[in-house]
Structures are given as C-alpha cells and as structure tokens.
Design goal:
Layout lengths: L11 H4 L8 H8 L4 H11 L2 E2 H7 L5 H13 L3 E6 L5 E6 L1 H4 L2 H18 L1
Antiparallel strand pairs: 1-3, 2-3
Pfam family, one: HxlR
Keywords: DNA-binding, Transcription, Transcription regulation
InterPro entries: HTH_HxlR, WH-like_DNA-bd_sf, WH_DNA-bd_sf
Length: about 120
Amino acid sequence: MTENRISSPIPATAAGMCQLPCPMPDIVTLIGGKWKLIILQILIFNGTQRFGELKRQLDGVTQTMLTNQLRALERDGLVTRQIYAEVPPRVEYSATPLAQDLESVFYAMRDWWKRNQPPFG
C-alpha cells in the first residue's frame, strides 16, 4: 500500500503552533514589511501622531512609503486617520483597539531580543 504524504514547509516543532490553514501569511500581510511594525510600535506606545511626527521618527522612510504603509494599516483596521478641517489640514493617526491588542507581541519580541541579543551583535 502506497502512503500519500504531503511535505509540509512547517518544521515539526512549529507544527503544533501553526495548524493548517496557517494564519502566518495573513499576519505577515497585515504587519509585515520594513515599516509597519515600527509605525504600529510608535502609535501603540506613544499614542496619536501627526504625519510629520511619524516621519521624523522613521529614519529613511520616504513620504510616499509612509503614506502607503499608513493607508494599508488603515485599510486593515489597525490604524485610524482623523482629518481636522484646518488650514493647513491636520491629520492624526492612532492605533485601533485591534492594533493595541498587539502590545504583548511587542513585549514578547523585546524579551526575545534581550535573551538573544549577544549573538546578533
């Protein structure tokens, strides 16, 4: 009798953490990339920010990239944008409750870094 086996890209040790269908691709789409996690960290821990305030805290980000990342985070329900009818217009960005729920993830990443930082430099 021939056994049909599907090769899984998930290591055996991670298989229990990520049952198929695995949510990781969706999670990476929501918060992955160079800037999204940093933007979320700023908004979660420092509160509401204006566009210029965010840009100053993100060394190397272009205005276009920041705009695109904020739009994606807003579209996915992680950031809200408040526009004030002023001249010039004032726009503020805040973390939504869904994004605030990631706070423990940031603490877990920080703790992991503290435990493993020496091998990284």
